[in-house]
Amino acid sequence: MLTVQGVTVRRGGRALIEDHHWTVPDGAVTVVLGPNGAGKTTALKVLSGDLRPDAGQVWLNDRPLPDWPVQELACRRAVVPQAGALAFPFTVEEVVTMGRAPHRRRSWAARDAAVVADALSATDLTALAQRPYPGLSGGEKQRVHLARALAQLDGAPDGQRTLLLDEPTAALDPAHQHQCMRLARRMADDGAAVAVILHDLALALRYADRLVLLRQGRVMAEGPVADTATADILSAVYDCPVRLLRVPGEALPVVVTG
Amino acid sequence: MTALAFGRRSGGGLAALRSPRAWVIPGLALGVVVVVVVAGMTGAMAVPASAVLHMLFGWTGLWAGAPLDEATVTVLSVIRLPRVAMAALIGATLAVMGAVMQALFRNPLADPGLIGVSSGAAVAAAASIVLGSSLPLFGALPSGMVLPVAAFAGGLAVTALVYTFSVRDGQPSLSLMLLAGIAMNALGGAVIGLFVYLADDAQMRQLTFWTMGGLGAMTPGTLIPAAVLMALALGGVLFTARALNLLLLGEAEAYHLGVRVEALKRVCIVLVALGVGAGVAVAGTIAFVGLVAPHLVRLMAGPDHRRVLPGAACMGAILLTGSDLIARTIAVPAEMPVGLVMAGIGGPFFLVMLLRVRAAGGV
Q: Boundaries of each ABC transporter domain copy (chain A) (predicted)?
């Protein structure tokens, strides 16, 4: 579980995020929503430890993030980046195997190979395993990093797995968007704490347990989807009329914006 | 090629050996031995291969041959093998440090000169050639040591300056370092130009030859310290191979995978500056090997640094030892600058490799 406690990040005299208090509980998918510039990526960078907050603290389980040794942190927290900048011709399989790096003292080659094979098949990449990464499409690259994160969290201590995803569906077609979110969902069902930045409200409503709604660096609302995903709150967050229409026979409302 | 290629304890040894990539490092290591032996045989006094092998391996007991006559021993141990060994070590260092810089900057075009070590060394070398021992502090050194010591100090000083410029929020930023390095290289070029303007004809000639590299002017007093520095830097940098692989994903991604990125960057910069600084100090600037040797190895063995670093060491040793062999034999009794030979042969060779890769659809 990640706990954000009074976190503020300032850059050049401006607060990117201000006085954030929220949690990413175990066993749930927490979706971070908000318009451009609301501070979603900054918040995720604070969660992952990339950014030290200027005030406040992030806790992973019982310890503040800076107190975790980098290696120990890497064994239980994986991050799926927006885009990978790898320009060297590693194969897809080699990139996914890099996810096993934090475990190399506790794991062994045959186990790593099995974990990697599972991650590749879970992300539909088995057929591309020997392809060089730089030649893949944007969506395929995104899936490679998802597979790498899955491989990284295999073998993490029970109840301590944390998966952070920064707009993982941005470059994906609808089928792979759902596949990606189903994988996040399954990780949460297995007990992991999952935080996802999304722009797609329909995906958020379908897969989120909890929402964190950001606007201009501040938390507008936080809590279970049922309490936070209302037309009023969403309209205020996005500064744009949002309607949630009930359709007979559909469990989820249809999102209409504008 | 297989899932095992990345595992530390690559199980299924037989499967791994069937991959052609597994043979690249042993093949290159054998190539180093062959080039070193040929270079040891060749020169004003021809020496049979058996004598060179006896000198190289006799003490290990692996090679038992007839005792050598005194002249052969003197030629090999005093003149030829120290030079061959230095060529191999400098080539290995420049090539490995090139590979490290390319990984650090995640750019296949990076070379050790980017952090200013070569241009700093060149400026200091130019100053010591033109101003001579009128420079403060250096008057006390034996005359053969002034240039190498000045070059080494200049290389480290400019690298430290570039590093200082690149620190933002207490952490070195690689993009700032790249830009500061470019600025320093431009400034260094201007200062060298100024020294060329001030130099007399003999000094200008010495300066020009230094910038083209050469292994003929090494003095015994500088050989050992330079060799020790290069060996230490090489040995240290080999331990970073796995972390460099992860760094290629990006700095944030490497950190997420447990790499202490800031420490890694600092260690690499220090080792590159020490190794390249020592090499440049005794042999002048030798371009090309740091850029091309890692590429050749990547084309053969793939991008994994656990193969690229040792492979580049062998490749660099082969390229520089071979180039030096040609440089000192092609125009006897004169000696060509080794940098010219390296670029003249290596350039076309690299182009041919590129054509083959292009035909195969790679890169």
A: 2-241
Contact criterion met (CB below 8 Å) for B289 and B346: yes
Alpha helices in chain B (DSSP H): 13-18, 24-41, 49-57, 70-74, 81-104, 117-131, 143-166, 174-198, 201-211, 220-238, 241-247, 251-256, 261-283, 289-301, 305-329, 338-360
- Residue B280 domain boundaries: 29-357
Nearest CA among B290, B277, B283 for reference residue B230: B277
- How many other CB atoms are there within 10 angstroms of residue A28's CB atom? 21
Question: From chain B, which residues contact A within 8 Å (Cβ)?
Answer: 1, 3-11, 106-108, 242, 245-246, 248-250, 252-253, 255-260, 298, 302-304, 362-363
pLDDT tens sequence across A158-172: 778 999 999 998 888
Q: Please choose, from the candidates B316, B335, B317, the residue with its C-alpha nearest in 3D space to the C-alpha of residue B326.
A: B335
**How many domains in chain B?**
1
What's the CATH number where B176 sits? 1.10.3470.10
CB A6 within 8 A of CB A19: yes
Q: Write out residues 6-45 of A within 8 Å (CB-CB) of B.
A: 45
Q: Which of residues 81-140 of A touch B (CB under 8 A)?
A: 81, 84-91, 93-95, 97-102, 104, 108-110, 112-113, 116-117, 130
- Backbone phi, then psi, for A143, in 5-degree steps? -65, -35
Query: In this predicted model, what pLDDT tens digit does every residue of B194-238 receive, in sequence order?
Result: 988 888 888 888 888 888 888 877 777 788 888 999 999 999 999
Q: Which of B4, B242, B260 sits opposite A70 (nearest CB)?
A: B260
In a domain, B236, yes or no: yes
pLDDT digits (tens, 9 = 90+) for A118-145: 999 999 999 999 999 988 988 899 999 9
Token pair listed for B273: 């500056």
Q: Which of B186, B136, B195, B134 is nearest to B158 (CA)?
A: B186
- The ipTM value here is 0.92
pLDDT, averaged across chain B: 84
**3-state class (DSSP) for residue A194:** strand
Q: Which residues contact B285 (CB under 8 A, 6 or more apart)?
A: B113, B118, B121, B122, B210, B211, B212, B213, B339
Reading the block at residue A56, the tokens are 């406040």
Let me know if residue B185 belongs to a domain: yes
- What domains sit in chain A, N to C, each tagged with a CATH number? 2-88+156-257 (3.40.50.300)
Structure tokens of B188? Answer: 């260094």
The reply to whether B351 falls in a domain is yes
Rounded Cα–Cα distance for residues B290 and B101 (Å): 9
Q: Does A1 touch chain B (CB under 8 A)?
A: no
Chains A, B: CB contacts within 8 A come to 98
B13 in a structural domain: no
Asked if A99's CB is within 8 angstroms of B248's CB, the reply is no
